[in-house]
């Protein structure tokens, strides 16, 4: 079944969901600091967005693609997290794909989290060649979580970390 293109991705997504765990918080003494928020993005509606508007806020940043099975596997948990924290945390789900392709994917899946297209390179500290890669950044710019691969973002553990960041 894995060699048949129509069944390969759904099977890969299913397996990724089975093996996804809560992301791990980086030890305080090992956290990297985001100092440069200079980064130009655009919304799916082609409005220019500057990442610097999120400086001083809690940010969840996810790099993903519509063709990536681990990315697709973690999307429902990211949507649930966005539904709960979207008013208090700045969410950036960033891709390099064509906006039309992404919009079709979003419409088909019924996702409402904000998606952005990179217009310039991300700050160096946020560079990753692995999809998905997700960062949870504190108000002070500390990278509290850096997770590569699919994760369960709608977990009690993750929500406790976010609640702690919001309370500071």
Put the structure in a nutshell.
This protein is α/β, with parallel strands linked by helices and 168 residues long. Helices cover 33% and strands 20% of the residues. The model has no long low-confidence stretch (mean pLDDT 90).
Written overview of the protein:
With 168 residues, the protein is of the alpha/beta class. The chain has a single domain, classed as Glutaredoxin, CATH 3.40.30.10. Helix content is 33%, strand content 20%. The chain is built from four helices and seven strands; from the N terminus they run αβββαβαβββα. The chain has a seven-stranded mixed β-sheet, with no helix packed on it. Helix 1 crosses helix 2. The chain is globular, with a radius of gyration of 16 Å. 29% of the residues are buried. The model has no long low-confidence stretch (mean pLDDT 90).
Mean pLDDT over the residues: 90
CATH superfamily: Glutaredoxin
Give, in spatial order, the strands making up the sheet with the most strands: 2-1-5-4-3-6-7
Q: What sort of overall outline do the alpha carbons produce when their principal axes are compared?
A: globular
- Which blocks of ≥5 consecutive residues have pLDDT under 50? none
Number of strands: 7
Secondary-structure arrangement, i.e. CATH architecture? 3-Layer(aba) Sandwich
Integer-rounded radius of gyration? 16 Å
- Strand % is 15-25%
String of helices and strands: HEEEHEHEEEH
| CATH fold topology | Glutaredoxin
**Assigned CATH class:** Alpha Beta
Span of the ends, CA to CA:
49 Å
Describe the largest sheet: 7 strands, mixed
Number of continuous helical runs? 4
């Amino acid at each position: 079944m894995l060699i048949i293109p129509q069944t390969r991705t759904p099977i890969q997504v299913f397996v990724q969901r089975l093996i996804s765990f809560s992301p791990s918080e980086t030890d305080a003494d090992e956290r990297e600091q985001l100092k440069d928020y200079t980064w130009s993005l655009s919304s799916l509606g082609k409005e220019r967005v500057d990442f610097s508007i999120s400086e001083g806020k809690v940010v969840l940043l996810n790099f993903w693609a519509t063709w990536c099975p681990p990315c697709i596997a973690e999307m429902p948990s990211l949507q649930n997290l966005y539904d709960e924290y979207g008013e208090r945390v700045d969410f950036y789900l960033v891709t390099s794909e064509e906006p039309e392709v992404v919009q079709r994917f979003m419409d088909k899946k019924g996702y409402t989290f904000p998606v952005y297209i990179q217009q310039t390179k991300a700050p160096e500290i946020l560079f990753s060649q692995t999809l998905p890669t997700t960062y949870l950044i504190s108000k002070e710019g500390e990278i509290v979580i850096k997770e590569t691969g699919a994760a369960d973002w709608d977990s009690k553990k993750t929500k406790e970390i976010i609640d702690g960041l919001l309370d500071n």
